Amino acid sequence: MSINKNKPHLLILPEDDANRQIINGFIQNLNVNNRAIQILPIADGWKKTVDKFTNDHIKAMRQYPQRNILLIIDFDECENRLDFVENYIPDDIKNRVFVLGVQSNPESLKRDIQKNFETIGESLATDCVENNHKL
């Protein structure tokens, strides 16, 4: 099923397969409107995620005012990575571009909490619905 570009929708651009699996778990939650979400192919690296966003999505973001995009990247304990990414987001669409990710990397999170990636995504969705911060 494809999204309706003229209604509010969310594109998700994951850096890697681990992040994609987390998102797959997240959208399985019954409270998530997965008909308004499209997971894009993985970018294969945080810099490539930024490149794909700037080269492939900024123009369409301006064309479709109901479009939002979520960039999922690994922060790899790098304190200035978010600042770097935000510098590539034009001001006119900044309120519709979101950047999320694990402070280290998904593999470390998986090891630390001993859950698979999709279960991590399911837990995050439950946390959002219940408005808590367990994970």
Contiguous runs where pLDDT drops below 50 for at least 5 residues: none
Per DSSP, the total helix count is: 5
Strand content: 5-15%
Mean pLDDT: 92
What composes the largest sheet?
4 strands, parallel
Helix/strand/pairing category: alpha/beta
Taken in chain order, the helices and strands follow as EHEHEHEHH
How far is it from the N-terminal to the C-terminal residue, by CA? Answer: 30 Å
Shape: globular
- Radius of gyration, in Å, reads 15 Å
Strand count:
4
What is the helical fraction, as a range of percent? 40-55%
Side-by-side strand order of the widest sheet? 2-1-3-4
Outline the structure in words.
With 135 residues, this protein is an alpha/beta fold. 42% of the residues lie in helices and 14% in strands. It has 5 helices and 4 strands. It has helices at 17-27, 46-63, 81-86, 106-113, 117-130; strands at residues 9-14, 37-39, 67-72, 97-100. The protein has a 4-stranded parallel sheet, with helices on both faces. α1 crosses α5 (117-130). The protein is globular, with a radius of gyration of 15 Å. The mean pLDDT is 92.
For the structure shown, list the relevant keywords.
alpha/beta, 135 residues, single chain, 5 helices
How would you concisely characterize the structure shown here?
The chain is an alpha/beta fold. The protein contains five helices and four strands.
